[in-house]
Amino acid sequence: MTQKLRVVFAGTPEFAAAALAAIHAAGFHVPLVLTQPDRPAGRGMKLAASPVKRFALEHGLEVAQPTSLRRNGKYPEEAVAAIERLKKTPYDVMVVAAYGLILPQEVIDIPRFGAINIHGSLLPRWRGAAPIHRAIEAGDTETGITIMQMDAGLDTGAMIREGRIGIEAQDTTATLHDRMAQLGADLIVGTLRDLERDGALPSTPQPQDGATYAEKIAKHEAALDWRRPASALARQIRAFDPFPGAFGTIGGVAVKIWAAEPVELKADAEAGVILESDAEGLVVACGRGALRLTQLQKPGGKRLPVREFLAGSPIVKGQRFELREVAPGA
């Protein structure tokens, strides 16, 4: 190819902004950036631009923020306008990263090389909205990035390339996210350079076996059920950092728990009961084993090491965290 590859980018959060920054820095022409509409954020709930929009505006890139891209959806007029704008924009390929809107086949088919997705898992494991969270929560020891050719399915397209990352014992979604965002940025630049050079991208269909779905994280999942094994609760706490933050309720107060480690339960105790309370941590009995809580946050407060937290909010041995109500079938 003699002409520089032209890339329309679609993405919203920091994960996507890292990829857009890499594409821009690599010299690819980006005639248009799609991102979600501004959302209320912060204590004042003022409208805030997405990280992708902020990068685009700072670097003089055109931005569009349609509410939908589906003609038969809730916002057909916006969708039609956005599709017409895409059709009038000269570009060769669309790169999609955590965009948050469904791309109908009509949109995927507009550029001659279709749409390429940067997905945060080793497909077919963890298709869907929250692959980083779910990998940690499930206890996976490895994850990665898959660059895939998009189709109308949910993360079902053919795989172009992948990069692997080990999940460390202390990884949170925040720490793993940052490493994966950088890996995704590196992989997409390499992919676009290959496409620019060769005019095609070999791909491999996803295997049917091993597919799992990473459902979007819901706030109600953040409540810890102390009847579960300590090891599972420790993974849940790491998976829900930074959002939504796991919590336990004691004395009617919801206390966020940001760091914890499983420890051996030395004697039988009822789930949720605090067995130790000192500068080393709160040790809480679980359904199997116990959990030492080492970083906590009370409502309206800051994340604090347990020593500082207890100085302002005494919690003593023998108190008990309330047991989470388990939904039928859970």
Automatic annotation (TrEMBL):
Enzyme Commission number(s) from the entry: 2.1.2.9
UniProt keyword terms in alphabetical order: Protein biosynthesis, Transferase
CC annotations in GO: cytosol
Residue positions binding (6S)-5,6,7,8-tetrahydrofolate: S121, L122, L123, P124
SUPFAM superfamilies: FMT C-terminal domain-like (SSF50486), Formyltransferase (SSF53328)
Domain (Formyl transferase N-terminal): residue spans on this chain: 6-189
Keyword Protein biosynthesis: yes
Span of domain Formyl transferase C-terminal: 216-313
A molecular-function term among this protein's GO annotations: methionyl-tRNA formyltransferase activity
InterPro entries reported in the protein's UniProt record: Fmt (IPR005794), Formyl_trans_C (IPR005793), Formyl_trans_C_sf (IPR037022), Formyl_transf_N (IPR002376), Formyl_transf_N_sf (IPR036477), Formyl_transferase-like_C_sf (IPR011034), GART_AS (IPR001555), Met-tRNA-FMT_C (IPR044135)
Reaction catalyzed: L-methionyl-tRNA(fMet) + (6R)-10-formyltetrahydrofolate = N-formyl-L-methionyl-tRNA(fMet) + (6S)-5,6,7,8-tetrahydrofolate + H(+)
Homology family: Belongs to the Fmt family.
Function: Attaches a formyl group to the free amino group of methionyl-tRNA(fMet). The formyl group appears to play a dual role in the initiator identity of N-formylmethionyl-tRNA by promoting its recognition by IF2 and preventing the misappropriation of this tRNA by the elongation apparatus.
Annotated NCBIfam families: fmt
Protein name per UniProt: Methionyl-tRNA formyltransferase
Gene: fmt
